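Q: Joint fold for the lines below.
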Amino acid sequence: MSVRIVLAAGLIASLAVTVYADERSDAKAQVEFGISVAQAGLWQEATYRWERAVDIDPSYAAAWNNLGIAYEHEGLFKKALEAYEKALDLEPRNLMIQENYDLFREINDRLDQDAG
Amino acid sequence: MTGLTKTLGSVGLLLFVCACTNNLYEVPIETPLQPKLDVSAFQRVLIAGFVTGGTNDVDANLETARLLRSQLRTESRLDVIDSEVIDLFTVAEDESAASRDAPEVESTEKTTRPNADELDQEEEKTLSEEELEAYEHIFANVSYWRQLGEEHQSPLIVTGTVYFTPHQRSGMVTREREIYDDFGRRQVVPIRAYRDRRGYVLSPKFIFIDGRTGVTLYTERYREEVLYDVSQNTPALSSYFELMDRLLPSFLGALSDQSIRGTRMLLK
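A: Joint structure:
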């Protein structure tokens, strides 16, 4: 009986890993396509791809980072702030995300100051 | 063997760096900034003139009007009206004279701002920043600005005060100095020294008035200063443009879409 339980748990765990790997793989495909279109200047399409990526895998920090950049480029500062902060929550030690976030905050804080 | 190990190590490090950089993509972005003031109701802008104080070395009224007009021609969708730059001192003088004719306000007016004779004398000397404030009543004269607006087909009117004055400050300054060591190698080291420095302060206050109603829509105040070594003889006009150059992006940001260019790192 206990052997069956162990086997079932193992099967579920391996399925979960497979599903997670598939999700990350799908999300990564969206992120990569988003990068290629952003490099071509097609930011709306890139935004759509990265939004898809975070829908598929909400724990994908790079996708949130890219989404932050895309929102910033579109002037959507509140959404950009949320996306960057989500990326940093997921990977607090990622220096690239931190640098993007710092550059964004510099502009955002200045705007807040002007508005105040 | 050691050489081979080092080479393999270097190749490994290079491959690692390549692998890392393959996941990074630097992209240029332009962050759009919305104008602080909604000017969609206006087709035209009138840079009327400014009440100025400080040094007489620069005609701050004329130079500010010229500079803002030329900037708005290229950086804004609004048509810039070409007209004589208004001498707002004279307008304020006329308004003061009119106020003196009204006996009930004479006593208070005299205490708050100079009369016509005093104004003539003050044209010879320079006005301090505090004295300039005594002329700010002109910006609250709704009927004057509405009438001016009617004469120019109801534009957005830009006016205000400009205070530009020499400034002096002494203190510790960090400068770079070249030194050569015993082997003749050049080095640049920071040296802190006490210095007397002279320069200028520019303190403008831009007021945006609705030419249809004469009402003030928005006000922006800035303060910039520049200091040079006392041995450096910088003309006042150069300093004026140097300081205006610093605050122009913010001024233009009040009226038109601006963008900040930069780069960000996309990640895989």
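Q: Anything notable?
A: The mean pLDDT of chain A is 87. Chain A has one domain: 2-115.
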